Amino acid sequence: MHTADLPAGFAPADSDALPLHLLERAHYDDWLQAQPESVRAWLSQQQFDAAAGSCALLPGERGVAGAVLGIGDPLDPYSYAHAPTALPIGDWRPAAPVHGDAARALQLGWGLGAYRFTRYKSGGRAPARLSVPALEAEARDVLAACVRVRDLVNTPTEDMGPEQLEAVAREIASAHGARFESIVGDALLEQGFPAIHAVGRASHRAPRLLKFEWHGGDAQAGPHLVLVGKGVCFDTGGLDIKPADGMRHMKKDMGGAAHALALAELVMARRLPLRLTVLVPAVENAIGPEAFRPGEVIATRKGVSVEIDNTDAEGRVVLCDALAHAGELSPDLVLDFATLTGAARIALGPDLPALFVNDDALAGDWLAAGERERDPLWRMPLWRPYLRYLTSNIADLANAGSRMAGAVTAALYLERFVPEGVPWAHLDVYAWNDSARAGRPAGGEALGLRAAYAMLRARCGG
């Protein structure tokens, strides 16, 4: 993966680094008893107890001699993410060796804590740097994937419309030798993607379906994975226009596409033994003379007619054509990512993506990977009796209806376009931090991504 744009939080191993003691609260007393009396008194006067997220500097004859960092779970990257801003500017090295999964968590957490989106605004305090011989290769690639999501989601729509998203997808595909194509504008109608066209036709920026295929990683005998990402580059709500506060951050409505592209990039960088196809319907849901209308009946690739109950339920409309195409490719597994419903946020809040899965083994694998990676998700039900809320009197299906169980009905709508017997998972993800916390700056965020990669790696025997 491209690492030139990784956060500037790392220093070479031979830098003049100060010692950093990484301590869980449960082990703090034992560590403290082994320190000189002056250190014990210094920390006692500060009432320092190595609580998670804490930091204390250690004095020396010529100033700061080191620091103690309170961490929680040593395998959680966010246990370390406060370090780059809590510590003074300079280089720091763990006072005791850190190995294995803890070392990867340290490096990833440090990088996430050092992240800044600087495309339009520079300056600010530089992060403290972690001195390491070299970033562990997988941790580096996972960090790059998380940064990719953050950067894409943070970029305003004038610089991240459908054509710019295509440029990013094309760059990722080219870097890994994948075959790329784009179906743009009226070609969507000619090639059988009428629902994508209907949502995007009102914008001055043509709608498109982005697609690339990769056969690397010894994948000739490997399973076929299809990744689908919702690429609504801005969502006004259409003619069912959003209020101002609901529209304010709708540059992030391509967060599903950002996750799919970053996961694809990570799969290819790590050369997992898979055949990979990526599908991203990229549109703007705009207002204009050509905007699709409430009550309109639109065609879909699968031949299912859809009555538009609400033009602000557009994500599922563009995804249904992409999922129908995914099913035509004889996939072994389909994963889709989408900033799909506010109902999922009401149910689970901003940190827990809602996972809908039609296969119990797949659900178990992804949830278990989330626990291992400290990248949690929560499974929600595909409660099929709620399909009654999508009943239309004039079409096969409505795109919305009742306010009841909004995240569930959205997932059920998508499931209608997945062939029976194909393992499929849908992640309804927020892709955003409303406010800043350690390692989680306000703005774009990757959620469920690390877990998805770990799940795929485990399924590939890695």
From TrEMBL:
UniProt KW keywords: Aminopeptidase, Hydrolase, Manganese, Protease
Name of protein: Leucyl aminopeptidase family protein
One Pfam family cited in the UniProt record for this chain: Peptidase_M17
Entries under InterPro entries matching the protein: Leucine_aapep/pepB (IPR011356), Macro_dom-like (IPR043472), Peptidase_M17_C (IPR000819), Peptidase_M17_N_1 (IPR048816)
Cytosol aminopeptidase domain sequence ranges: 310-317
GO molecular function: aminopeptidase activity
Sequence similarity: Belongs to the peptidase M17 family.
